[in-house]
Amino acid sequence: MTVSAAGARTPDRTAPAAASAPRAGADQPGHADPAEVAATVAADTAPAPDGAAVLRVEGLGVSYPRRGVRGGEVPVLAGADLELAGGRILGLIGETGSGKTTLARAVVGTAPVTAGRITVEGVRVSGLRGRALREHRRSGRVQYMFQDPLRSLDPDLTVTELVGEPLAVAGVDKRERRARSAEALHRVGLDADALGDRIAAQLSGGQRQRVSLARAIVTRPALLLADEPVSALDASNRNHVLRLLDELRRDLGVAIVVISHDLGSLAGVADRIAVLYRGRLVEQGPTAEVLTRPLHPYTALLTASAPRIDRTGRGPGARTRPAAAGPPAWAVAPGACVFAHRCPFADADCRTQPGSSSHTGQRSAACHHPIRTPSDDWEATS
Ligand SMILES: Nc1ncnc2c1ncn2[C@@H]1O[C@H](COP(=O)(O)OP(=O)(O)OP(=O)(O)O)[C@@H](O)[C@H]1O
């Protein structure tokens, strides 16, 4: 079990070295003045200059080893390009198995990158190895928040220990750990004095998710990857966590990637949406535009089937067909459209030719026949 860049826990085979680093001691709940610590956090975590990319993903490919086949591999992500500035939220959406978690894990260095590059704050993290990678993870500048806090939080640690653990990994002394853990808990609406001595099993689902969030921000990250942060929560806790994410990006300038199945959750919080289908990013753009005027037929299908986005079924999504089985993504010709087997507009080009990526302003869609409106100003880029 391991977790983030800074040593939480996740059930994977590629445990970051930080996972074996010493744990925080049994700190007492912190007594620091949260306002004072908050001021320090704000000073230490200056938002990236407007427009500066905190995360840049270029031509990313990830392949997992194929079980039982020596040297064999299964490509699960290909040609992914993304950019995210400080203080911005990117919603990453796609059906189960499309590669959302894999993309996030590639960014924190726990998925095997086979092509392209990932840059965080100007540092090429996809090329880091050995000591440089361990140092990067210990810095806590990139944090990954797991979708299942009950499984990802160590059941034996108290809340104070859980939140302070990434700081212990980073070598922060006990006194500062206590102060910063209390501030992080305060920021997510939890009282360290009241909850600091509890273990995860003694918390509600919403509290656990907020402890995960406190743990993720305690290192003052530049980039937070939140994997399905609200999918297990009821409506009130969901809204609370989404509001917290919004505050974090605004107050601390954190760049946040929110992974979700739920367009409704993303609609309220994300500045931009990226749509993943079978390991390919098929569309990206400002949230309102992607949701109301999807360009890629798969996005149209998503928006049409999301009740809160399009209840009428009369939007562009109504033109798409229901799901149908297709070839596995790795069997699709390199660059050809992975949605062609389901797309009502697909022609021979879509099944055989490299997908054409079109864009207009802030938007892009990897599609030979994007859904257009008369006002669209199109430019084919490849
Ligand atoms: N460690 C692994 N080894 C081999 N294959 C893997 C591994 N992890 C994920 N996969 C495969 O990679 C593909 C993408 O998985 P991933 O977990 O990234 O999808 P996802 O979009 O996050 O799905 P979900 O929404 O269900 O969490 C899936 O086919 C999955 O089975």
TrEMBL record:
> What PROSITE patterns does this protein's entry cite?
ABC_TRANSPORTER_1, ABC_TRANSPORTER_2
Q: What is the lineage of its organism?
A: Bacteria, Bacillati, Actinomycetota, Actinomycetes, Kitasatosporales
GO MF annotations for this entry?
ATP binding
Organism domain of life: Bacteria
Polar residues bias: start-end ranges? 353-363
Composition skew (Low complexity), residue ranges: 1-27
SMART domains in the record = AAA
Q: Name one Pfam family in it.
A: oligo_HPY
This chain belongs to the protein called ABC transporter ATP-binding protein
Looking up CDD domains in the UniProt record yields: ABC_NikE_OppD_transporters
Region span, Disordered = 1-34, 351-382
Where in the numbering of this chain does the ABC transporter domain appear?
55-303
The record's keywords, sorted A to Z, are: ATP-binding, Nucleotide-binding, Transport
Q: Which family does it belong to?
A: Belongs to the ABC transporter superfamily.
